[in-house]
Known about the structure:
Layout: H1 9-19, E1 31-35, E2 38-41, E3 46-49, H2 52-55, H3 64-74, H4 89-100, E4 104-108, H5 111-130, E5 138-142, H6 151-155, H7 160-163, E6 173-176, H8 181-190, E7 194-199, H9 215-225, E8 229-233, E9 269-272, E10 284-288, H10 290-293, H11 309-324, H12 327-347, E11 352-358, E12 361-366, H13 374-384, E13 387-388, E14 390-392, E15 396-399, H14 407-422
Parallel strand pairs: 3-13, 5-6, 5-7, 7-8, 8-9
Antiparallel strand pairs: 1-2, 2-3, 4-10, 9-10, 11-12, 12-15, 14-15
Amino acid sequence: xxxxxxxxxxxxxxxxxQHGAHNYHPLPAVLSRGEGVHVWDVEGNKYYDFxxxxxxxxxxxxxxxxxxxxxxxxxxxxxxxxxxxxxxxGAYEKYATEYFGFDKLLPMNTGAEAVETAIKIARKWAxxxxxxxxxxxxxxxxxxxxxxxxxxxxxxxxxxxxxxxxGPYTPGFTKIPYNDIDALEATLEKNPNxxxxxxxxxxGEAGVFTPSDDYMMRAKEVCSKHNVLFMADxxxxxxxxxxxxxxxxxxxxxEGHCERQETYTKPDILILGKALxxxxxxxxxxxxxxxxxxxxxxxxxxxxxxxxxxxxxxxVAALDVVKDENLIQNARKLGKLFRRLMDDYIKESNxxxxxxxxxxxxxxxxxxxxxxxxxxxxxxxxxxxxxxAKPTHGNIIRFAPPLxxxxxxxxxxxxxxxxxxxxxxx
Length: 426
Ligand SMILES: Cc1ncc(COP(=O)(O)O)c(C=O)c1O
């Protein structure tokens, strides 16, 4: 049956509204094409993409190398399930584990699944290696976290909208304030049953909440001292987004993978998704060394699609692009420029309080009450001016363009943002 031809944004929105569940509240932009840092809507209007599918499209839309790898693999062999081996999974696992510096990788599809996987590994490790009595393991998480939408993951969220009426909730999680080493230390000191500390190096969904520079390093030290696994959710922050290969090693001055070991905080469990495929395909992964990963044995975890040949080919190409095109260095350079230009504007602005972030994961905080619609209205005006961004929690707008942006484009985007913000000055 032929699909109905979409002639306008309005028609497409109406179809979604009538036939799709109402689980999102998108900006009314109906996109039909993307290339590099740009997307086009069905009317042919061109926009800068300043969200990058929540930091999945770090390598830019439809990157030819990634799309090429996907086409080539899809036309040869797309899916075997893990009932059989395929000839690319092992090569991908070797490549990715060397790339990030771990012994082993467990492939999954979405970010939330990878978080679930990490939780299962940590619990099993606690029972089999740490000696915690079965069913008593706890995972420490942070207030205002965002780790996905599954039943277990929302069980430890404090976003009421994400939780309400979805209980009963999964037990076994202890919440502490973010960016508070004393709270972590006190919690681990008190409870010998803690398996892991699950943390975002920057809280993206919460509004690009950027912790103090030594938080990750000190959290890892505290975890090591108490034999607790340090679990970094780098689904949004990882793979060059924040100006380091990972955000946990984003503060040092290394170019690329960190060589200054003293500032490199290696997680015990690393959780990746989104940009692992450059946004072309759902690919996620959990990485750990043997001592941790080897607790998982046949039949104990898996997914029909996890580690499929297309995912493996796409991930290798996506990681290659990050290195070949120096996206870490570019994110770092353009991120600094972005915050400097925004800071210059903010000094004279009464509509924006501050800009914060690292690399090209940034946000502005609107000078208005938390629950006003100003951030939404600004995003609507940005759209009219040719740039797509989305409010996040509170009155905050996240800015996360593809990392293949050049300086001229970034300056153009800052001009659009400032011009738009000026329309809202009081
Ligand atoms: C830090 C973090 N963890 C987990 C997730 C969930 O990933 P997915 O939407 O692919 O399930 C996200 C998605 O935004 C995220 O930002």
